Amino acid sequence: MAWLKELREDVASVFERDPAARTTLEVVLTYPGIHALIGHRLAHALWRRHWSALARYVSAVSRFLTGIEIHPGACIGRRFFIDHGMGVVIGETAEIGDDVTLYHGVTLGGTSWRPGKRHPTLGHGVVVGAGAKVLGPIHVGDGAKIGSNAVVVKSVPAQATVVGNPGRIINKAEDRHRERLDYAQSLGFHAYGLDAGDPDPVAQAIVSLLDHLQAVDKRMDVFCQAMRAAGMNLCDAEVPALKDEDFAGVRDQGDKG
Predict the structure, then answer these.
(1) What sign does the dihedral 122-123-124-129 (CA atoms) show?
(2) pLDDT tens digits, one per residue of 188-238
(3) For the packed helices 2-17 and 32-48, what is the interaxial angle rounded to 10 degrees?
(4) Which of 11, 21, 128, 225 shows its CA 20 to 30 Å from the CA of 208?
(5) CA distances (Å), 21 to each of 205, 209, 227, in order?
(6) Region for 87 from its dihedrals, namely left if φ exceeds 0, alpha if ψ lies in -120 to 50, beta otherwise
(7) Per CATH, which fold does 2-169 belong to?
(8) Maximum separation of any 2 CA atoms in the chain, in Å
């Protein structure tokens, strides 16, 4: 039977994602996420047959018993796991892919009263942290992670990580930080601990200088390539490399501070 196969998959997904789970009987009897999912599948089947009042009644009973509110119109994929679950709200036009994990206090809500698609779509393997709010008809790509208490109102690319209110993608910032460090080290300067978010004004100035130098270097590379293509060898001279000892005095001052 299809529903029994789905239940087995759901229980197996609990063991994969919750180290506190001990036995199958414990999961089936005590996990509200499992109970809410069983209730939703029944309510959703009724909803698709246009028995909306009965579907909403089943959904309301499930919410009363589990503290998890899932509209019967929401479409949910396989191996969906709601950990703890209290306070989770999933709207009518929400769509959830396979292997998605939600923690307690998550809202997949709308931002409009207009009919039609107004709730988010989550791709496969998405993880949404406790208290996060994902709002509107946006798309969260496969494998994305939404941090706890984040408020997301714009679409999120696959594999990205979003934090904060309003939600911001931190993968790009981390990539830029790594690029900045690599560039600094290519100059012979070990720019440890430098980040654009650093409150130290000296560190911020150095970060800005590194970004500016890198942009100038890229522009000069393009210029030199054009010069070489034109037969002019004006860019063959090597640029003196910066060395760690060149910054020894600056580091000594920083250590004293």
Answers:
(1) negative
(2) 554 444 455 555 566 566 666 766 777 787 788 888 888 778 777 767 666
(3) 150
(4) 225
(5) 50, 52, 66
(6) left
(7) UDP N-Acetylglucosamine Acyltransferase; domain 1 (2.160.10)
(8) 81
